Amino acid sequence: MVHLKTPEEIEKIRQSADLLGRTHGEIARLIKPGIRTIELDHVAETFIRDHGGSPSFKNYNGFPWSLCISVNDVVVHGFPGQYTLREGDIITIDCGVNLHGYHSDSAYTYPTEGTPEETLLLLHRTLDALYLGIAQAKAGNRMGDISYAIQTHVEQFGYGVVRELVGHGIGKSLHEDPEVPNYGKRGKGPKLVEGMVIAIEPMVNQGSRRVVQEADGWTIRTADRKPSAHFEHTVAIGKEGAEILTTHKYIEENYTYKWRNKSQ
Ligand code: MG
Ligand code: MG
Predict the structure, then answer these.
(1) What is the DSSP code (8-state) at residue 90?
(2) Domain covering 7-261, topology
(3) How far is the CA of 14 from the centre of ligand 2 (A)?
(4) Ligand 1 centroid to 108 CA: how many Å?
(5) Which of 59, 130, 141, 247 could tie 231 with a disulfide, CB 3.0–4.6 Å?
(6) In angstroms, rounded to a whole number, what is the distance separating the alpha carbons of residues 156 and 54?
(7) Three-state SS for 63?
(8) Averaged over 224-243, what is the pLDDT?
(9) Domain parsing of the chain, residue ranges
(10) What spacing in Å lies between the alpha carbon of 199 and ligand 2's midpoint?
(11) What pLDDT score was predicted for residue 261?
(12) Which listed ligand is nearest to 175 at the C-alpha?
């Protein structure tokens, strides 16, 4: 069942999303070779709590951390830990914030200095696919219009679109209906209506779309061990189009490696 949001509820999600965006910005300052991923989790949790929120992921179905941190061939749901980031790695930070009972959710994959050119391209193209999906998120369209835009953009480069995991509605719960798949057919699926709030989140593999789950019950890895990218925004669907409630602007301001300016 889809919960449509009132303008007042969307305002609450907007505030949650602003705190989330600023949390991402705090993490962006710290991402560099030599950082242990657990340190990022501590910074995020402290920042969220200091600003009156709580981390949506912590204890969600037993997930033990505030961030999902997914390095290189980890697609999503990686655990923060003792791993020390190295030159050439890519690292996805996925974070959710609960502020006054309303959730927001966004993710960003960072390259580091030394990330191979072909993996930089994967990141550029996955981020482009997110915005192509968002461009379809308007009242009157169908969910499949979002899915199709994402899938066709990345598959033209031979990448694999992960199917086992999808985007989702969001609001009073972190995960609500409807599902937002990153693959699908134009004109199919649920109709998009004003007041829907959804997380759109392409997960795109440099190689095959196949994934495997680790024994920890959470970590999802590419089956061929090639890198995977993941970008996510929480958006509100309106008559004229989507309002992007989350933001990557604090990441872009604070991350020292200006990779988006590099060759695409
Ligand atoms: Mg997320
Ligand atoms: Mg999500």
Answers:
(1) E
(2) Creatine Amidinohydrolase (3.90.230)
(3) 16
(4) 9
(5) 130
(6) 40
(7) coil
(8) 97
(9) 7-261
(10) 5
(11) 82
(12) 2
Task: Find the helix packing angle between 143-155 and 117-135, rounded to 10°.
Answer: 160
Alpha-carbon distance of 180 to 84, in angstroms, equals 33
Q: Which ligand is nearest to the CA of 55?
A: 1
What tokens were used for 61?
Answer: 């179905």
Ligand nearest to the CA of 200: 2
Distance from residue 106's CA to the centre of ligand 1 (Å): 5
Whole-angstrom CA distances from 207 to 51, 55, 59, 171 are 40, 32, 32, 33
Q: How confident is the model at residue 254 (pLDDT cuts 50, 70, 90)?
A: very high
Residue 28, amino acid: A
Among 2-11, 31-40, 254-263, the range scoring the smallest mean pLDDT is: 254-263
Q: Of the bound ligands, which one is closest to the alpha carbon of residue 198?
A: 2
Ligand 1 centroid to Cα of residue 217, in Å, is 17
Instruction: Note the pLDDT tens digit of each residue in 137-178.
Output: 999 999 999 999 999 999 999 999 999 999 999 999 999 999
Specify the DSSP element, H or E, that contains 14: helix 7-30
Q: Each residue of 107-137: pLDDT tens digit?
A: 999 999 999 999 999 999 999 999 999 999 9
